[in-house]
Design a protein that fits this description.
gluconeogenesis, disordered N terminus, isomerase, G6P_Isomerase_C, alpha/beta, monosaccharide binding, binds 6-O-phosphono-beta-D-fructofuranose, 545 residues, 13 strands, 11% strand, glycolysis
């Protein structure tokens, strides 16, 4: 663990990769496949219910060997053990990083500060299950005695993206008599549009905030309380229509939610790693406790795979290392996440926070500025929609964009030929990206000469194919754990703290300074730069101040 990683680029394993890159950077996937007719099978892994085909990447056996050396020389094994042991690897906040404890079976023991945290995790899961069942059965009613029909989760970042993504992903398994909505933006439109057709007497608000101090969430929660109290005519309604999910009992009580209706989690769960904690309460109400536990089992299966599988057959390790190969040696700046499943429409947004908030860091664990690239830009959209929007640039633009294609053998909505057509597009895209179409092939099709360059596909665009049987709660848990640990692998190699997020603080502080300047009747001091001062003045003038 105590490897001086400011010297990452000076390490023999890094230098070996740099030299190797010079040798293989121009190798074409056409050649690699032509030279090895088993490549599609050799560079693939069937483990933990996931088929991972990484053959359509610009790498050789030697690349993998060198990347594995890099992982070993980065102390990856020790870091994995340290995380699972509950060591305080989030050094800047002096916290353990134990999202893996959220899906640990009851009989496992994970000790933080002398206490086994697994019983507390299961106690909260039981409390969530009990509450979810009461809402789902109608035993829990609103203030007027009406059954709860709508759940509105109010949260932002990790307290929104996870439950929202997972609710969409698992809609097929949800109780269709319940409406679930998610409000995150401080823009009042979000709250108004989410609630405009809801009956306050039938609506339950789940206020989700790790800190319970987040401006957006508390502002939306206050508006929700006003909306509810105004409609139901009494402050007493709050107890029946509001529950909280938080680590901060004091602030929950201060807000006016009975702490008996609070679902706890802990400072060793990062916000972006939290949707399998109580932050998933709205999801559990929607899909029921059994399905939620199925999802946790999927997470746990990948945790165990990650903890125990040798690195050369370890899915998150390989996914992470391949990412490093493009990010740090090919200079790729982004990674596209392309799920071929409509239910996974919010997966790219979710992974954006997971990856970019975790690994968007410019100093290493010792506080030294790094002299290498860290986290990539994550983006994407479900296929096939993306094909008709941005794939053009991936195929024929000037940038190298590695992409993860995620798909399923079986559809949850098997109508007509849809699924075969969907998956034909999936396979066709990874084939086209890898092999392209040469100018000779284009000309041989009889294409007029002036069009040939425009219709030529260079190919050699790398993709990972990640295939599952079908989208289930269990599968979703696997997908998320896979990416959580991929982020961990990369953060370890870059020697950065993937578990803090100081980069979001400055904007929050400055916004708090500007709020009174927009709201006060008196002219503000105008203590900002000339651009910000002018913007504030113009805004105030437009608002009649
Ligand atoms: O602003 C970033 C952040 O701190 C995220 O890391 C977190 O997921 C989000 O805000 C919400 O925080 P909280 O759950 O404390 O309201």
């Amino acid at each position: 663990m105590a490897i001086a990683v400011t010297s990452l680029t000076q390490r023999p394993s890094w230098k070996a990769l740099s030299e190797h890159y010079q040798k293989v950077k121009d190798l074409h996937l056409r050649t690699l496949f032509a030279e090895d007719n088993q490549r599609g099978k050799r560079f693939a892994l069937d483990a933990a219910g996931i088929y991972f085909d990484y053959s359509k990447n610009r790498l050789t056996d030697e690349t993998i060997r060198l990347l594995l050396d890099l992982a070993n020389s980065s102390g990856l094994r020790e870091r994995i053990d340290a995380m699972f042991r509950g060591d305080k690897i989030n050094v800047t906040e002096q916290r353990a990083v134990l999202h893996v404890a959220l899906r640990a079976p009851k009989d496992q023991s994970i000790v933080v500060d002398g206490e086994n945290v697994v019983p507390a995790v299961h106690a909260v899961l039981d409390k969530m299950a009990n509450f979810s069942n009461r809402v789902r059965s109608g035993a829990w009613t609103g203030y007027t005695g009406k059954r709860i029909r709508s759940i509105v989760n109010i949260g932002i970042g990790g307290s929104d993206l996870g439950p929202y993504m997972a609710y969409d992903a698992l809609k097929h398994y949800s109780d269709r008599d319940l409406t679930c909505r998610f409000v995150s933006n401080i823009d009042g439109t979000d709250f108004v549009e989410a609630t405009h057709d809801l009956d306050p007497a039938e609506t339950l608000f789940v206020i989700s905030s790790k800190t319970f101090t987040t401006l957006e969430t508390l502002t939306n929660a206050r508006s929700a309380r006003d909306w509810c109290v105004k409609a139901l005519g009494s402050e007493d309604a709050v107890a029946k229509h509001f529950v909280a999910v938080s680590t901060n009992e004091k602030e929950v009580a201060k807000f006016g939610i009975d702490t008996a209706n609070m679902f706890e989690f802990w400072d060793w769960v990062g916000g972006r790693y939290s949707y399998d904690s109580a932050i998933g309460l709205s999801l559990m109400i929607a899909i029921g406790p059994e399905q939620f536990h199925e999802m946790l089992a999927g997470f746990h299966e990948i945790d165990e795979h990650f903890r125990t599988a040798p690195f050369e057959r370890n899915l998150p390790v390989l996914l992470g290392l391949i990412g490093i190969w493009y990010n740090n040696f090919f200079g790729a700046e982004t990674v596209a996440i392309l799920p071929y499943d409509q239910y996974l429409g919010r997966l790219p947004s979710y992974l954006q926070q997971l990856d970019m908030e975790s690994n968007g860091k410019h100093v290493d664990l010792e506080g030294n500025t790094v002299n290498y690239q860290t986290g990539p830009i994550i983006w994407g959209q479900p296929g096939t929609n993306g094909q008709h929007a941005f794939y053009q640039l991936i195929h024929q633009g000037t940038k190298l964009i590695p992409a993860d294609f995620i798909g399923f053998n079986h559809s949850l909505n098997p109508i007509g030929r849809h699924h075969d057509l969907l998956m034909a597009n999936f396979f066709a895209q990874t084939e086209a990206l890898a092999f392209g179409k040469t100018s000779q092939e284009v000309a041989a099709d009889g294409v007029p000469a002036f069009q040939v360059p425009h219709r030529t596909f260079e190919g050699n665009h790398p993709t990972n194919t990640i295939l599952f049987e079908r989208l289930t709660p269990n599968t979703l848990g696997k997908i998320i754990a896979l990416y959580e640990h991929k982020v961990f692998v990369q953060g370890t190699i870059w020697n950065i703290n993937s578990f803090d997020q100081w980069g979001v603080e400055l904007g929050k502080v400055l916004a708090n300074r500007i709020i009174p300047e927009l709201e006060s009747a008196e002219a503000p001091k105008l203590s900002h730069d000339s651009s910000t001062n002018t913007l504030i003045q113009r805004y105030r003038a437009a608002r009649g101040k």
